[in-house]
Amino acid sequence: MEIILKEDVINLGYKNDIVKVKNGYGRNYLIPTGKAVIASPSAKKQLAEDLKQRAHKLEKIKNEALAKAEQLKDVSLKIAAKVSNTGTIFGSVGAMQVADELAKLGIEIDRKIITVKGSVKEVGNYVANVQLHKEVKVEIPFEVVAEAEEA
Question: In the 8-state DSSP scheme, what is residue 82?
């Protein structure tokens, strides 16, 4: 039996995939739970139209992400933190501090899409990754300095 998946199903396929399954699996589980519909000719035609319309929206979103990535390409940040005599930071520097520094430069980025590898607990140079789109990722270098040094 051929079906069109309405959502991702583990070990079977992703949303909008047309897959072949055994009749019982499709009829007794996938279709009643709303995870799939029968792949009739009209359903296939509707799927093709939906994918075509969605392609334009996805292209627009990707282009916006590329424009934002171009804006972030040459950005380098300096983040001031309270530091002990040994160079260890009180607390740590994370995505929220990187987002705040970007906001000071006039670039609004949601802190949830920023990742900082490892824990930043010492003065030094680090890199933050910004995932603007599933295909667009930007690395932003930043330096952590002691608060007294910046002033």
Answer: -
Q: What CATH number corresponds to the domain at position 86?
A: 3.10.430.100
Count of all residues that appear for the chain in the document: 151
Distance, in Å, from the CA atom of 141 to the CA atom of 75, rounded to the nearest integer, reads 8
Same domain, 12 and 57: yes
Q: Amino acid letter at 135?
A: E
Residues 6 or more apart in contact with residue 139 via CB below 8 angstroms: 127, 128, 129, 130
pTM over 0.70: no
* Other CB atoms within 10 Å distance of the CB of residue 76: 9
Res 26 pLDDT > 70: yes
Find residue 137's DSSP bridge partners.
131
Which of 22, 45, 63 terminates a domain? The answer is: 63
Name the domain boundary from 30, 45, 63. 63
